[in-house]
Specification:
138 residues; 80% helix
Length: 138
């Protein structure tokens, strides 16, 4: 089955399940309050971390280095903010994990090693070429 389709269907189901379980434990008002508080605090902290990432990127540019980590980190912070705005406990947990620099680095390291292993190849690429300038009489 298609992965985006599975996520599109399963995430709301997980969120509804968690709403029912947590709501029955702590009450409806407390559940709604907790969702609003995590969204507000998460968005504020995402903004704070976003500014720190921007400062770090500027420092990298000043030292003539490419701010690759900062670019990826900025994209992760944007995704984390979106996840925190969406109501739900599972999306809030994933968003909070992406906001904190320590867990963000761990996630990046896991993903990067996965893709390095899958695309690692020492085989040469063979091919032919034709110089188009020779054909045009130049």
């Amino acid at each position: 089955m298609n992965t985006p389709l599975v996520l599109f269907i399963s995430i709301p189901l997980i969120e509804i399940y968690l709403f029912i379980k947590i709501g029955s434990s702590i009450g409806a008002f407390n559940t709604i309050s907790l969702i609003l508080i995590t969204a507000i605090v998460g968005i504020y902290y995402a903004r704070y971390e976003g500014l720190n990432t921007l400062k770090s990127a500027v420092n990298q540019l000043v030292t003539n280095k490419i701010p690759i980590y900062e670019i990826i980190s900025g994209a992760a912070l944007a995704i984390a903010s979106l996840l925190l705005i969406l109501p739900g406990f599972a999306t809030d947990l994933i968003g909070l994990l992406l906001i904190f620099p320590v867990t963000r680095r761990i996630i990046f390291r896991k993903v990067s090693t996965k893709y390095k292993q899958s695309y690692k190849s020492n085989d040469p690429i063979e091919g032919e070429y034709k110089d188009l300038d020779d054909q045009n009489g130049k």
